[in-house]
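Data availability excerpt. The first of two example chains:
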Amino acid sequence: PILPLLVKDGLLLPTIASTVFFCIMYGNLDQMVSTSSSPLNERMSSPLPVEPNSFWIQLLGFSQVVSLCGACLLTLLHEVYPPPARYPYLWPTLICAYSSLHFLLFLLAFHVIQFSSGVTVSISKKKL
């Protein structure tokens, strides 16, 4: 797990600051891009209706928020509460388990989105 290494090297605060900066930039991305010459702005002013996000896209967005909250909780627990003497590696073990579950669930979600998109690619073979 990287969190104990960040603490050991004194890089936890810069990591938290860059994570907060990323969240702020990601949350305000549509406002930063919406200039008058932007293709995104032209699409937004189009009279054609815009389809709402699919269930999987909404679930993915919700799971991103839950994932970030879980990481913040584990970081807070690691820094504020010392592990019990009986389990000295409790926080690194929980961080590893959370990271593994996190990876597997997002891998599954992205595969479901990718393979249910309905886009097909045809490859034509040319004779030499």
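And the second chain:
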Amino acid sequence: MDNMHWWLVCLKGFRSTKIYGKGNTGDKDELSDDNESVSSSDSHVSYIEDDQDTTSTTLKSMIVGEALWDHSSLRKDHLEFKAGDLIEVLQQNGKWWKGRTDSGKLGWFPADSIRLRVSQEADDQDSKRELKLAPRRMTILQRMNTMSGKPKLNPDWVRQKVIEEIINYEEGYVKNLRDVIEGPLKEARLRNDLFDETKIDRLFSNIEELYQFQVKFVEELKKRLHSVVYKSQIGDTFTENHDKFVDIYSRYCNNHSSALAEYTLLNQHMVYAIFFESCRLLKDMESIPLDGYLLKPVQRICQYQLQLKELVKYTSQSHPDFTAVGEAESIMRRVASTVNERKRRIENIKKLAKWQSTIEDWRGEDILVKSSIMLHSGSLYKISAGNKQLRRFFLFDRQLVYCRKLLASGKLQYKGRISLDRCKIEEVDSELGITHGWRMENTVKHKWVVLLSKKASDKDRWMSAFKEERTQIEDDKANNFTISQHLRARRMSKLCTKPPKNIPGLGN
């Protein structure tokens, strides 16, 4: 885009809409549920007639969705929930909806954080979930089951609708990815004065690879469509692409927080805000900011599991797709769980950075250089060089940090750390007069300390936590989980840290 054309687009944007404003509202949302057909090119596909009365007046007054991921907020009027929770939708107001959880809490939440069920019927898994709920009030599930006059849905009709939803969502999703690639990404590569390769990689990650995969994936889905939609066999499309889902989405989701941080930083400058909005107008994209588009792959990977879960429910055991759909749901549930866990882990690094800022006299590398989660903490006696000292210990992935409590202020003062990647932990013989203790040895420097807990139960909890730490490391390797050093450094840069010094203690 030449400079004159670029500024003309900017002027067009400011005349027609404010930054991130209403924009072009005449276009139909590509992800709209009102889209009844799979595709205009699939006119040969026949459908079950929609003239059956599948809902009653009572059912229309109750809309239930399932949470795609955890939602937390510091605002009192926001609704907090966990991935998989049932949410009753009470009010739909643009991008923010009002809802109620089974605990009775009311609040607002992002509309794109839940998926509305096609069937609006309770299933067996809901019944198991109901047993865990407090019996003080009627739950969402109970009210779904007690709606009078509600006819049972035709399973084949629901199966057809879920398959249509999957295909329609895929087509809209692929278009969203293409718009990002042909819009902001393409234009950013032409603006060397604004974007270097590092900025581009940080913002867009492997979105082009993801797009190419999704184009082929939706083609494979369409090939498996039967002329009578509910007879279609689409389960193996997911199982055959399991490794690609894990690999491609893992890398994208790992970078997502870095992308949002980069976008937020750039968008604070008017020249970048105008650039992003101009790209949106040039491609006639939906009137949402770029970070909304960058979130869509994370949303989609979570939607798959809920769509397949409903598809399993309405696929009879005699259906040739029954086994494959069950396997597909299980696979995508694990992938979605991994995405949610990574989201929690990345959000957690902010807490670790804040924790470090409360420690007096911190020395050495920042906690986030090697760690991303705190697994356990507690007071222990540390014995080394003949000295016995009471210290406060904090167990993170890859390291154990210990501090001293300052009597005057009550704050914690940094004293040292132990690297767990080169550490051997072994029981201490009680015949030596030491109980509830264990020895930790640096296998490289051959230094060691003995740690003592006050009670046997405390020791058991520490031993369990050390095993959990090693398991966490192995799981991270297996799932290719990483948090970029750029994101770690950015979190720490917001806090005041002192210059690095040599670190006393074991493992440095």
